[in-house]
Amino acid sequence: MEIQVMIQFLPVILMQLFRVLTNMTHEDDVPINCTMVLLHIVSKCHEEGLDNYLRSFIKYSFRPEKPSTPQAQLIHETLATTMIAVLKQSADFLAINKLLKYSWFFFEIIAKSMATYLLEENKIKLPRGQRFSEAYHHVLHSLLLAIIPHVTIRYAEIPDESRNVNYSLASFLKRCLTLMDRGFVFNLINDYISGFSLKDPKVLAEYKFEFLQTVCNHEHYIPLNLPMAFAKPKLQRVQDSNLEYSLSDEYCKHHFLVGLLLRETSIALQDNYDIRYTAISVIKNLLIKHAFDTRYQHKNQQAKIAQLYLPFVGLLLENIQRLAGRDTLYSCAAMPNSASRDEFACGFASPTSRASLSTDKDTAYGSFQNGHGIKREDSRGSLIPEGATGFPDQGSTGENTRQSSARSSVSQYNRLDQYEIRSLLMCYLYIVKMISEGELPAY
């Protein structure tokens, strides 16, 4: 079919294909073949530079139909299932690569189908854990697991495809935070980030931070990171406030997204310049966004946001020696946890004392690796799906621990450059300026 003819009837063709996709699920080959035809149309539109018609179709023309028969399924359920089947077809790499490259279209269709389903079935008022079935949760988790190897293993073979699906998946999960049980979506994010390794090359580190940046650009990012303190007794709230100052497991359980971002940043700061640059840029841009967000311009609101990032100050203290000049090294030796923050011994080190500072530096790095080695399961305390439904028990699958010594032999403790120092200090000044007067002395 000529592309011009297909474009003229594009909404009709696509809607008919989606109708066949959902009503012929009892036939094993029909849904997959239907998805392959959809994939061909989408790829042809992109090749001809006509992808704007696809975006217009999703926005204006696509209207998911209710199942006409008991055997029929919903579009988001069927399409996600067939995507898994295509990704697992090891014999057809051409189709797999096209699906990865143009995955945005399929994720947008799934997201709109989910939103329409909630509105038409009046399930938007239900608790989030009851909006979608256990089976659909399992399908989404399987889809995520099917995508991970194509990003983390085949990135060099298919750079464009892997980058596109990384961004498309992040955008989709960001949409899911609005529609689904957020604990379940946090688990998906956690599992995806766990697919990356400490020994990953620069490009995969970029993928990881692009993914985190996209998810953290959610319009309600701040509320997603704030636990419901009003639901706790006053004594418990006081005890919890003492956990807000360090990048501890409890902190990450209560503030999952910002905790995950800060932990990945703490690891990136021990890596080479390119990875450090990417991580620092994500943090800086996020804080700039908070500072100019018109919804949070009140002093108390900005103070609460700054409090979320207090562990970032600890990251700076751990790397304080790397901010120093070559001739005049400013050192700041941290006391044990039981010691007061006022007991920090700060001074200018003489040239003769730099050898001991170097020894302290190595010791500090060892404690950093032991104290902040990433345990992916330790962020799941706040990830329990609402209503105790959705994701299966993570206790049995919580063995995804980062081997924190993997990069110890290649970590670079070289001095940070001017851009890195300036960006880190900008972030620090924002936190110190906006934090409430009572929180800073307590820290």
UniProtKB/TrEMBL annotation:
Record has Lipid metabolism as a keyword: no
Domain of life: Eukaryota
Biased composition (Polar residues): 394-409
GO molecular function: guanyl-nucleotide exchange factor activity
Keyword tags: Signal
Residue ranges of the region described as Disordered: 368-409
Biological processes, Gene Ontology terms: marginal zone B cell differentiation; positive regulation of filopodium assembly; small GTPase-mediated signal transduction
Signal peptide per UniProt: 1-22
The keyword Signal belongs to this UniProt entry's keyword annotation: yes
Full protein name: Dedicator of cytokinesis protein 11-like isoform X3
Organism expressing this protein natively: Delphinapterus leucas (Beluga whale)
Gene: LOC111171053
